[in-house]
Amino acid sequence: MPHSDPGADPTTLSISPRYVATIFTALVLSLVTMHLVTGILDYQFGHDYQWGFRFQFNVDNEGNIPAWYSSSALLVASFLLALIGATKYKRRDAFATHWLVLAGMFLYLSMDEASQLHEMSARLFDRFHPSGLFFYPWVIVGALVVLMVGLAYLKFLLHLPPEIRRIVLVAGSIFVGGALGVEAISGRHHELHGLNNLTYHVIVGIEEGCEMAGIVMFIYGLVRYLALTADRVVLAFRDDAGGPALIGRSAGLRSGGGKSGRAA
Asked: pTM of the full predicted structure?
């Protein structure tokens, strides 16, 4: 089997945070727009099937295009967190574990988005018959988890560069506001008026749109963090003869503000 020349220059992929954010934002806007349009065609004009597009772009459904996108975006965030965490761990950084745990959390969120794991908690609350803003019982669990993670990660947030800290806080506020705040409102509307109406459809669109927008901003912040604090991170892929390696070489993630030329 032929091997590449070990002296050849490696392939370099330059990633701009702004470009990444633009691509993800365009996808989110397209998905939310299609959700609203197909809902209006259904509830206002009686076109409920729409050649399958009604189901495929309903952000409240599972196993369709928005669900695939959301799960994939969370997986991208998990990968970026793992990349940063692995590099930090290699350099014995004090917050390496925080990055890696976050990567695991976002991996779980990615699986949850695809399989609705959070809805399994609903049975735990059946005997209490929750109502009102807690009609969806996982909102209670989610609020407690957010509180615990926020307290546990306070020092981690404070150690981040000011720009990245602001991005993370805004992204988290948008995501949690949609996942818990707007979700609670949609649960209340569901309890009072049911699911099959345009108002509920719009509320769900806002909820999922907030979640998607929060993840887009978070991904932007992670790529921006890499651009600001890392001169270069090299992923080395070797065959069995060369031994396994995930991260071949890194110029290091500095806690300060060293800036690369691709941080536009």
From this structure: 0.85
User: Could you tell me the two tokens for 63?
Assistant: 């196993």
**Which tokens go with 229?**
């604090």
Please give the Cα distance from 211 to 218 (Å, whole number).
11
Amino acid at 71: S
| Residue 165 and residue 157 in contact, taking contact as beta carbons nearer than 8 Å | yes
Tell me the pLDDT tens digit for each residue of 99-117.
999 999 999 999 988 887 7
Residue 182 has what pLDDT?
97
Predicted pLDDT of residue 243: 54
